[in-house]
Amino acid sequence: MSDQRPKRSVPIDALRAFIAVVNARGFTRAAFDLGRSQPTVSLQVKKLEELCGAPLFVRGSNLKLTRVGQVCLESGLALLNANDEMIAHIDKLGNISRPLRVGLPSELHDLVWPRLLSDPSGSTALHGVELSFDTSEKLLKSFERDELDVTFIFTLGESALHARRSWDVGLQWCAARDYPLRPDNPVKLVTGFETSVFHRVAVDALGKAGREFEVVLSSPDFRVRSSAIKAGVGVGLLLDEAIDSQDVRVIPNDEIEKPPDLTLNGLYADRPGQSEFALTTNIAAALDAVWPKRRLSE
Questions:
Q1: Per the count of CB atoms within 10 A, which of 81, 230, 249, 253 is most buried?
Q2: Does residue 289 carry a pLDDT above 90?
Q3: Per the domain annotation, does 3 fall within a domain?
Q4: Which of 189, 174, 165, 201 is closest to 282 using CA atoms?
């Protein structure tokens, strides 16, 4: 007699959450990697345990897998890869109708956006496009999760892996024109969040200069940081081409050590199409106009 019990199906989201916890060796880091809350990830793992009818982790251990958990991990990786490959293939087949998803760091908003709008072909190139501005760190995660087709991100040092284009971008320490910067006082720092490349560069430069500092404002939005610097809230890093000498002054290198240059990377997913070609070409042209002699690779 055949087995008449109903077939059980493993939810992909629960499987993805479980594998993320194993890879990250913790629920908090897994939630961050997935862009979800920790309770949501915990609930997904519990759902998978209920489906299996057995715990996936040895109780009281540092996330050591049970035998059932090991089976879920090994088989789950194959299922997850098959699911992702199928979705990617479907996306490629349907990419004609799907909007082109483009991400730019907020630091480029005032430098690039006006140039895109003023380009004669700009209005046509922007048709069917989802354009978002965010931090480089969030944009990279979205790109890795296949939530963006094209993105531009800042990194420190060499170009990002698989970058199609790269630009060398200079930074300067800036403050309001009448802002008093005294060598014996801690630097009042206007910066990005601790995970951002702008924060890391700022802290490293101050450390090398032996300057104590106090974070007085932290924001992922470059426009917020820039306006705070102009208003005299504190000292911060600005892109060299975004400095308005009427509002701010560049702090000399003998007062604070000059920060290293950043690399702006263009990452393109494998999605050919006329709209992508037009917009990415326009963005690259706008960046070439801002940093005409600093393009590192093509």
A1: 230
A2: no
A3: no
A4: 165
Instruction: Provide the pLDDT for residue 241.
Output: 87
**Any domain includes 6:** no
142: closest CA among 96, 185, 104?
104
Chain position carrying tokens 């959450």: 17
Residue-wise pLDDT tens digits, 135-165: 999 999 999 888 898 899 999 877 666 778 8
| 48 and 115, same domain (yes or no) | no
First-to-last CA distance in the chain? 65
DSSP 8-state code for residue 242: G
Rounded CA separation 83/262 (Å)? 37
- Domain carrying residue 76: 12-93
Chain position carrying tokens 């982790």: 57
Distances (CA, A) of 2 to 5, 6, 9, 242: 9, 12, 19, 72
CATH of the domain at 83: 1.10.10.10
